[in-house]
From TrEMBL:
It catalyses: tRNA(Glu) + L-glutamate + ATP = L-glutamyl-tRNA(Glu) + AMP + diphosphate. It comes from uncultured Cytophagales bacterium. Its EC number is 6.1.1.17. One of its GO terms (cellular component) is cytosol. The gene is gltX. A motif ('HIGH' region) lies at residues 11-21. This is Glutamate--tRNA ligase.
Length: 513
């Protein structure tokens, strides 16, 4: 029987959602949509000590901004509600109890001091991994070393305890990963992980496996940092008798810092001036409790569809040269098999390139609304028609929407000064003479369009046997005050004949070669 494909994004609300997490959500989403399945959002908040207020809302806001739609989750509800693990607390206990009853888990009463002492003993004995495992468990205070009566007495008297998984002593644990193939782990390297904490809360491992089973998850697509936990999860599926419906695993390679060193970090982003989180956020750090501020891709001017297109290709490749994909195209083309095994260096220049491409496809009228609002806030009057023309001129060169208005002041104000370096290198009597002739010729240009202006300029230059490169920058200077910018003929068209000729005349006067 073919099961309905069900995937989940299962973040912990411990801070701003990292862009790597966004990519994980995206890959889950693409697979769900491609296979006509469901995408779940489960909030894994069992670690109360790392809970950060606002982090859950940040996850929702990020997914909303990006247009990653969730079928079942905390906000959407669904047949397996609640989707917040802290609200599912009573459900987990029975599974831990069952594992104990069937001899696959045990009660452990060790205090923190006793655990520390154990680790110190192992360090002193040069044991490389100080684990609570098949060997060391026999020297500790747990239901395997204590009698049944002692155990029951301790529990009855309210002694704090945890429930630990009884990892088999010698066994090759095999698991199949859709990206890595078969992964083999020897059980002697796996810890007897805590499944249920002394406050009755499940740990990540127990809650994750129980929920994936109860929620009928078919594919677990998550970051590579969870690969070491996967053998433990395989054991849990087996001990709980759920092997037949165990999800398929796909552990995604890490997003690395651009220099290839380590997981993409906030620190690295700050150093080189790029965001590693989707949205701005002022929150607190789960580890230190100190305030943290993060910069978002959204606020830095990235467009959501551009960011998604970029992220899709940071780890997955379509096997063709195609780079620009609509969401529907991504859904059709995506495959887990084409996700690489090696970590991906985060390529912010590529992200900018995608943004530029997507910005160009935005309708002028839509961007003009934004431009009008920004100009309005600066107290600059502008008509919608002019704003649209400005957008048309600026769009081709811009990477971020802000560039549409931040560099557009010369559309509203005649230059009051001229870029000195350009004056030095490009302004000379010949240029002045030619520009003067051109300005006179402009009087007859009707209608005043970029093409007609260009034709006039070419005529004047031809008559004098001069190439356009000789005067273009100087001419730009007279109109905008600076030596670079978008197509000058288009700028002149937007300014209109009167304003253009006035500016040129004024510059000729001021700059007197
Ligand atoms: N709660 C884990 C996280 O924060 C989920 C890992 C998983 O998907 O199993 O990434």
């Amino acid at each position: 029987m073919n099961r309905e494909v069900r995937v989940r994004f299962a973040p912990s609300p411990t801070g701003a959602l990292h862009i790597g997490g966004v990519r994980t959500a995206l890959y889950n989403y693409l697979l769900a949509r491609q296979l006509g399945g469901k995408m779940l959002l489960r909030i894994e908040d069992t670690d109360q000590t790392r809970f950060v207020p606002g982090a859950e809302q940040y996850i929702f806001d990020s997914l909303d901004w990006l247009g990653i739609k969730i079928d079942e989750g905390v906000r959407e509800g669904g047949p397996h509600a609640p989707y917040r693990q802290s609200e599912r607390k009573p459900m987990y206990r029975q599974y831990a109890d069952r594992l104990v009853a069937e001899g696959n888990a045990y009660y452990a009463f060790d205090t923190n001091d006793e655990l520390t002492a154990m680790r110190e003993r192992l360090v002193a004995a040069n044991v490389p991994n100080q684990q609570y495992n098949a060997v060391t468990r026999m020297q500790m205070r747990n239901s395997l070393t204590l009698s049944e009566a002692q155990t029951q007495e301790l529990i009855a008297s309210g002694t704090p305890y945890v429930i630990r998984l009884k990892v088999p002593r010698k066994e090759e644990i095999r698991l199949h990963d859709l990206i890595r193939g078969w992964v083999m782990v020897h059980s002697s390297t796996v810890d007897d992980k805590v499944l249920l904490k002394s406050d009755g809360m499940p740990t990540y491992h127990l809650a994750n496996v129980v929920d994936d089973h109860l929620m009928a998850i078919t594919h677990v697509i998550r970051g590579e940092e969870w690969l070491p936990s996967a053998p433990l999860h395989v054991l849990l599926y087996r001990f709980l008798g759920w092997e037949a419906t165990m999800p398929q695993f796909a552990h995604l390679p890490l997003l690395l810092n651009p220099d290839g060193n380590g997981k993409l970090s906030k620190r690295f982003g700050e150093k080189y001036g790029f965001p590693v989180f989707p949205l701005n956020w002022n929150g607190i750090d789960a580890e230190t409790g100190n305030p943290v501020q993060v910069q978002g891709f959204r606020e830095a001017g990235y467009l959501p569809d551009a960011l998604l297109n970029f992220l899709a290709l940071q780890g997955w490749n379509p096997g063709t040269e195609q780079e620009l994909f609509t969401m529907d195209e991504l859904i059709a083309a995506f495959s887990i098999e084409r996700v690489g095994k090696a970590g991906t260096r985060f390529d912010i220049e590529k992200a900018k390139w995608f943004n530029q491409q997507y910005l160009r496809t935005r309708p002028d009228a839509e961007l003009a609304v934004q431009v009008l609002a920004e100009l309005g806030a600066k107290g600059i009057a502008c008509t919608p028609e002019k704003a649209e023309k400005i957008v048309r001129v600026m769009k081709e060169r811009a990477t971020f929407p802000t560039e549409l208005w931040s560099e557009a002041t010369y559309f509203f104000e005649a230059p009051t000064s001229y870029e000195e370096a350009v004056v030095q290198s490009k302004w000379n009597p010949e240029a002045a003479r030619l520009i003067g002739a051109f300005n006179e010729a402009l009087a007859a240009v009707e209608p005043f369009t970029a093409d007609a202006i260009k034709a006039t300029l070419n005529e004047v230059l031809q008559k004098h046997g001069v190439k356009i490169g000789k005067v273009l920058q100087a001419l730009r200077l007279t109109v905008t005050g600076v030596g670079h910018g978008p197509d000058l003929m288009q700028i002149m068209e937007v300014l209109g004949k009167e304003e253009t000729t006035r500016r040129i005349a004024r510059a000729l006067n001021t700059l007197k070669a």
